[in-house]
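Dear colleague,

As promised, here are the two records you asked about, laid out in our usual form so they can be pasted straight into your sheet.

NAME FIELD: protein one
SEQUENCE, THEN STRUCTURE:
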Amino acid sequence: MKFVLACYGSRGDVEPCVALGGELLRRGHQVCIAVPPDLVAFAAATGPEAVAFGPEVQPILDAHRTFWTYFFGNFWKIPDLIRLRREIAEPVIQRWDEIATTLTSLADGADMLITGLNFEQPAFNVAEYHDIPLATLHIFPHRANGQFLGFLPSSVGRSAMKMYEWLAWRVGKKLEDPQRRELRLPKAHRSLPRRISEHGCLEIQAYDEVCFPGLAAEWAKDNDKRRFVGALTLGMAADADDEVLSWVAAGTPPIFFGFGSIPVKSPADTIAMISAVCAQLGERALVCAAGTDFSQAPHSDHVKVVGAVNYAEAFPACRAVVHHGGVGTTAASLRAGVPTLILSTDIDQTLWGARVKMLKVGTARRFSTTTRETLVADLRTILAPQYAARAREVATRITKPAASVAAAADLVEDFARRSPR
C-alpha cells in the first residue's frame, strides 16, 4: 500500500509521523512524508521519501516562544497578543496555497493520508477530494473532553474545548473555503472535529492513557476510532552518545537539562543558573542544547553541554530530568522512570506539566518565572526518595516505544484495508 504522511511543526510535532512512516516502510509499504523544509533531512534519516512543504519552522518557533512568554504575564493585552499571534501564523498563511497543492499532489493514488495536528484541515479536504481514508495523530487529547483541562471542572473544560473547536473553525474558514472551492468540494458548515468524527476518520491517540485517567471511559463510544498507542518516538542515536555515557559513568548520576527546539532567550544566563544551582546542591548537570546555541556560554567542570543525545539511553542514567515539557521528551522521562521537572514555555507544555504533577512523578512551573531560588527548591522536591519510587512505578505502566509504533502501524494498515474506496 501507499501511505502519505504530512506533519508540520517542531521536531516534537514531526517525530510521531516520522516514527510511524519508518515502521510502515519497514513493513514493505510505499511511504512518502511531507515536513517543514528544515526537517527534511531528519525525516529522511529513517528511510521514507521526504519532501518539503510550508515555510521553515525555526523562525516560527522563535515567534511562538515570544507569544507564550508574553501571554502568561499579559493575557489581558488582547491587541498585543493578536499582533504576536499573527507573527506566528503569517508565514504559514503566505504559503497556504502551496501547502494545499503539495498535499493534493502527494495523495494522488495513495491508499491513505496520515496527518499531524497542525494541518488537519487541508489534509481532511484532500482526503475527501481523493476519496481516501484519513488518519490523524494526536499527541495530546485534542478533541473535547473533561480531562485535559484538569484545573477546570469536567463539564466546564469540555465546553471550553468545544468553544475552541468552533472558534478555530471560524477563524480558519477564510483559508479553508478557497481550498474546498478549488477541489470542487461543497462548502463546510460544521467544525473540523465534527466532520472528522462523522466521516469515521481514525484519530490515533499518540500518548499514554495512564496520563489522563477517565479519558477512555469518556470517549467509550469512539474507542474504535480513538485508540491509545503511547508516544511515537524514534530513540535515534546521536554522535555524542558514547561520550555522554562515558562522562556519566565517571561520576555521580547527573541531572539532565533540555529545552527542546525553541531556543531559550538567554543561553549564558541559563547555563549560569544551572551551574550555580547544581554546585549548591552538589550535583552534576548534563545539558542538551537542541535548538539553543550554548557555545558562547561559560562552562564548568560539573556541567557538560552536548548538542544532541539519545534520551532513551541517557535518561535512565540520570538522577532527574528537567525539560520544557514537549510530548516526546515527557514520554521519554516517564519511560525512564526518573523524577521530572517541567519548565514550560507554552500552553501545551504547561498542561503536560500538570500531568506530571498529577502522576506525582515530579513538578512544574513556567520557564519564564524560574529563578535560581525556585530551581533549587524544585530540584530538592523531586530528588526526594518518594518521587524516584513513584517514577519507577509509573514507568511500568507506560507503553514501550516499539510497542507504540507497532500498534499505530497495525491500526493504519487495518483501517486502510477495511476502508471502502
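NAME FIELD: protein two
SEQUENCE, THEN STRUCTURE:
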Amino acid sequence: MHNNNIRRFALCLSLLALSVGTAGAAVSPEEAAQLNSTLTPLGAERAGNAEGTIPAWDGGYTTVPAGFENGHRDFDPFANDKPLYSITAANLAEHQDKLAAGVVQLFKDNPETFRIDVYPTRRTASAPQWVYDNTLKNATNATLENDGLTVRGAYGGVPFPIPKTGIELVWNHQLQWRGEATEARYQVWTTTGEGRRILATAARDYAQYPYYYADGSAETTPNPKYMLAIQLAYEPAFRAGEALMVHNTLDYHQGRTLWQYLVGQRRVRQAPSINFDTPNVVASGTNFVDETFGYGGSPERYDWNLIGKREMIIPYNNNAMMAHSDAEVLGERHANPDLVRWELHRVWEVDATLKPGSRHAVPKRKFYFNEDTWGTAIFDGWDAEGSLWRTSVNTPFVAPDIPATVNFCGGFFHDHRTRAWVYNCAMGTDVKGSQFSIVPKRTESYFSPQSLLRMSGR
C-alpha cells in the first residue's frame, strides 16, 4: 500500500510537470487587476527603479509632431537630449553587468571604434485604449496548448501580460502591437568579413495583423492569423521581382504557411523549407531566417527557460538614425556610434536550449525582451562548442500616430566568427517615399498566392 501511494504521488508529479510544459494558464482576476495599478496596461512595471535611472511609465509617447506626414519616421522627439555617459573599451568593466554578451564582444573585436552613448531613458511605449482593454481580458483568458505552440483565448492585445514561462514571452514578442496594417520600404545591407559592402535587398513590405483588427474579438475571430505579409524585392537587379509571402497563425502546431515567387520560375510555390536555420536570402545568407525581426517563426525546437527580469542598456527610440543615409549609419565593422541611441531599460531574460532530438545550427540562445514593448531588444547565440557566435540587436523607433514604439523592423546582426554583419530593414533617407506607413486594411484575398503572382510576375 505504501509503495502504491508513492507511485501514485510520483505519477501526479509527472503529470503536473507535463502540464506545466505543455500548457500556460491564465492568471486570476486579482492578479490581472495589477494591469490597472502597479503594472502598465501592457504588463510592464509602472514604477521607475530605485536609483531613478529608469523613470515611471507615464502613458508613453503619443504626441504627433506638427507637419507630420504618414510614414515619415525621421523626426527626433528627443533631439535635445544629451548622452548621460559613454561606454568605451576603456571603461567597459564598469558597465559590463548591464550589457549583453554579444555587445561586450563587439567592444572586444573593435576596441578603437565601438562605443555606446547612453541617453536618458524614455519609456515611449503606448497603444490605443482598446488594445489595453483586450490585454486585460487576455490576462484571464489566454492559455497555451500543444507544448506551447498554440495560443487560445487571446485577441487584440498582449496575450500574456503577466508571464510565468519563457514561451509566453516568445508569444508576447510575436504578438507585439504595431498597428492594424502597415506598409514599409527598406534596404538590407550585408558587410562581408573582408569588409565588402553589399546591397542584399531593397524591398516594399505589405503587412497586416488580423489578430489586431479593432473591430474583432476573441469571440468573433477565435483563431486569427497574427500576420499576413508580402515582401516585394526591387533591388539589386538580379533579385528584382522576387517575392515572399507569409501567413503566421496562433497555432504553430498546424504550421505556418509561406509562398515564394522566383523570377526564373515565373510561378508561385509554397516554401515550407524557409524556416528555422535556413540561410536568409534577404541578407545574402549571412543570418538565419528565424533571426530576423528579433526572432520569427515557430518556437517548437527549443525549451524556453524564463530566467527573470534585469536592467540592461539597449538601443531605444532610434528615430534619429532614420534621418540619415544608410552610408552614414554603416561603419566598417558596426553601426556608426554617433547615430545609435542606447538607454537603460528593464528586460525579461529567457534562455532557449535546443530540445533533445531537434536540429538547429544554434543550439543555445539568450533573449532579452523589453518589458514595455515585449519586442526582442537583443539576443545572442552560441555554437555546439559553447562559443559565442551570433548577436542580433534591434533598434526600436517611436510612432506616435499609431501609437506605438515599433520594436520590429530595424537593427543589426553580427556573426562573431566571420565578422560579417547586417544592417537589417534600414529605413533611412535612401528610401524613396514613406518609411513605415499606417495604411487601411486590405481584403485578405490580397494576401493570396494568386494576388502574389499578379504583383510580382513580369
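A couple of things worth noting about protein two: The chain has one domain: 33-456. The mean pLDDT is 92.

Best,
R.
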